[in-house]
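Ligand-bound model needed. 1,3-dihydroxyacetonephosphate.
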Amino acid sequence: MRKKIVAGNWKMNTTVPEGIELAKAVAEKSAQLPANVGLVVAPPFTHLAAVAEAIKGSRVELSAQNCADHEKGAYTGEVSVAMLKSVCCQWTILGHSERRQYYGETDGKLVEKVKLALSAGLGVILCVGENLDEREAGKHFDVVAGQIKNVLYNFSAEDMKSIVVAYEPVWAIGTGKTATAEQAEEIHACIRSVLADKFGREVAEDTTILYGGSCKPSNARELFAQPDIDGGLIGGAALKADDFIQIALSF
Ligand code: 13P
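Prediction:
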């Protein structure tokens, strides 16, 4: 049985004290969740050590939002996977559309980042998704399948045990415009079949695939009821502990 996960991507929000408060509230409320639901928070780099302390002893796991594409050295402003491990990070998000769009993150660079993350023992939440033009041109299946192939086809079935995929249609991020459950499900099913083509049905069936894009307490239940949607990567609604927990209670 693949794992259900709800992950909160805080993006560039909260100061460190605010982040500690939010993390503590999430950790406290997480006790009410069923055992088969994993909960992850992804605060900014500056918060990681303090948030690790705030969630200690709870079921909440810690993720970064990105990592460097080099192991170490003269890369001013970058944060390495070893640094993430040293503050007890268990995961990193990679390939978020905001990184692809604003910071020139390419599939090629992502291959390097995924390699480094896995070699450090970090789990990876790999984001994929089409933009509005691509959807309107009917290219969404091809775009998402292409991203999956370009990055994940460089890895093994064994590596896939540490990789979660997050489908985030760019037009649904922060816009209040959620993909319908049917739109999300058909892409999730497509992602699973693209994974099955390379790694076999069993690995594809065991891979957790999250939906992200204006997911909130009012629409999470319908989304999570779809057979290929295994949870969510939550932006705005992850900044309120009650909403975040409510979403995680929606399976
Ligand atoms: P919103 O939930 O704010 O739309 O953001 C989704 C997202 O980008 C999570 O990574």
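The chain has a mean pLDDT of 97.
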